[in-house]
Amino acid sequence: MKIKKNSTTETDDQTPGFPLNPRTFLRVVGFGIIVLFSVSACMARFAVSPEKKPQISDHFNGKNFVNPGSPSETGDGPKRGVLGYLWHSQVMAGKRYPRWPEFVEFLPGQPPAARVPKGTIRITSIGHATFLIQMDGLNVLTDPIWANRSSPFSWLGPKRHSRPGLRLEDLPPIDAVLVSHNHYDHLDLAALTQLAKRGTPCLLVPLGNSDLVRDSGIPVVDELDWWQTARLSADVTVTLVQAQHFSSRTLWDRNQALWGGFVVSGPSGNVYFAGDTGYGFHFSEIARRFSPIRVAILPISPFQPKSSDKPSSHRLRVHMRPREAVKAHLDLAAQVSIAAHFQVFQLGPDGFDDAVQELASTLKQRDLKPDDFIVLDPGQSHELTTN
């Protein structure tokens, strides 16, 4: 029997009476073999020290960090863990997800200026959640990932569909790195090690992440709780702000480390980097504490293209679809928002162009201009200057 193929979803021949088509069956068998050979190595490589220090926070329940109002003591987020994440990325994505382009070629952008002029904020998109923020004499890098896969393995897991917008060796001197949480598409240990070799002096992470990143070689690693602030210079501070998400790096460390976004504040204004988050009341609270926000960097994927706004699944609680990101933009009253977290790793059932298309249609429905919430190509910059 031949299954009809459509233009957006990859489907294979199915053998009558057999629950999986041959290609998917091979994926399942291969995945099982990979798990058997990988779990022991993974446990040895990423084991958490039993002497890990306890956390003190009003959103730490003694065992795990939680989102405020979470229906579960372990917080929101899919319960499948790392193996489930790899299962979905290798098996289910090949069976049910739309086919993304194998690789979208972008030439790397020109090396940025070493510093920007006083009164200027320049945001350069490198891809996914990696952005270069240049302002007030400092260069700040968010969630740096140059890896070809979002995975603990170089040969398994979601692969890049577009090249980083800047080569790591073309970056200007980086004064601080901000890592929002420990998921593999946001925390690339190899990239942190390379940045340390280039002289990056400071790394800021949410609570519970310092042990993971300390071996990168970056000299100063500061842990922050939500609403705590670190000073980068006489004029510039960074505050970890609330996000609605979850964390996991291994099979056994779910929500044992915190997640969050960051607000970089200086004479040029406030720049908000959301990291990875679902839609929630925290955007209004961020606006209350940091208004005016000149730039907000907001994720717009992954999402279920045909789903409603009702938060009926974990995916909707811990990620934003584009129309929710536009609501966040309005809650924040940001001067401009910049889209993040799209067209690099296929992490959900949305097609390659779905997020960008829904963002454009939502802006039109809301009577907002396209330059109110912009989409940057990898390597492209957006610049604001003070009047």
Describe this structure in words.
There is one protein chain. The chain has 387 residues and is an alpha/beta fold. The chain has one domain (1-387): Ribonuclease Z/Hydroxyacylglutathione hydrolase-like (Metallo-beta-lactamase, Chain A, 4-Layer Sandwich), CATH 3.60.15.10. Helices cover 24% and strands 18% of the residues. It has helices at residues 22-46, 81-96, 189-197, 210-213, 282-290, 314-318, 322-332, 354-365; strands at residues 120-127, 130-135, 138-142, 176-178, 202-206, 220-224, 229-231, 237-241, 261-266, 269-273, 293-299, 336-340, 373-374, 381-385. The strands form 2 sheets. Strands 6-5-4-3-2-1-14 form a 7-stranded mixed β-sheet, with no helix packed on it. The protein has a 7-stranded mixed β-sheet with strand order 7-8-9-10-11-12-13, covered by helices on one side. Helix 1 (22-46) runs antiparallel to helix 2 (81-96), helix 5 runs parallel beside helix 7 and helix 7 (322-332) packs across helix 8.
What is the structure about, briefly put?
The protein has helices spanning 22-46, 81-96, 189-197, 210-213, 282-290, 314-318, 322-332, 354-365, and strands at residues 120-127, 130-135, 138-142, 176-178, 202-206, 220-224, 229-231, 237-241, 261-266, 269-273, 293-299, 336-340, 373-374, 381-385. With 387 residues, it is α/β, with parallel strands linked by helices. A seven-stranded mixed β-sheet has the order 6-5-4-3-2-1-14, with no helix packed on it. A seven-stranded mixed β-sheet has the order 7-8-9-10-11-12-13, with helices on one face.
